[in-house]
C-alpha cells in the first residue's frame, strides 16, 4: 500500500512575505525621501509688491495673448521693439522696463524679451500683475 503525502504549499507564503517587505520598504523610502529637487545653494525668491504704485518713468511693453508687442502704446514687431529699446537705453542708462503681458500669453513670448533686455543692460524689469480680488 502506497500513501500519498500532502504537499506543503510554503512557496506562496514566502512570496507574499517578500511582497510585504518590498511594499514596506517602498512606503518607508517615500516617507523619508524628498520629492522635490533642492538647489545646492540658498535660493531666496523675490517678494511681490502688490498694492503699491508702479514706479514712474521708463518704457512699457505690452504683450498680447497671441504674442503681438507694443511699446508705449505703439504696436511693432520684435525687431523694431528691440531697436527702439536699444536707442532708449543709449539715451538713459537707468531705463526701467515694464512688461504688461496678457494673462494667457505664453512664456515663449515674454521670457526671451526679458532675457534680451537684461543682456543689453536694462537693470530694472517690472512685471505688471493683477492682484487676486478679495472675496
Walk me through this protein's architecture.
It contains three helices and five strands; from the N terminus they run H-E-E-E-H-E-H-E. A five-stranded mixed beta sheet has the order 3-2-1-4-5, covered by helices on one side. The chain starts with 9 loop residues before the first helix and ends in an 8-residue tail after the last strand. The protein is elongated and about 110 Å long. By secondary structure, the protein is of the alpha/beta class.
Biggest sheet layout:
5 strands, mixed
Percent range for β-strand residues: 15-25%
Low-confidence stretches: none
| Major beta sheet, strand line-up | 3-2-1-4-5
Secondary structure topology:
Elements: H1 10-32, E1 59-63, E2 69-71, E3 74-76, H2 78-91, E4 96-101, H3 107-120, E5 124-127
Parallel strand pairs: 1-4, 4-5
Antiparallel strand pairs: 1-2, 2-3
What are its keywords?
135 residues, alpha/beta, five-stranded mixed β-sheet, elongated
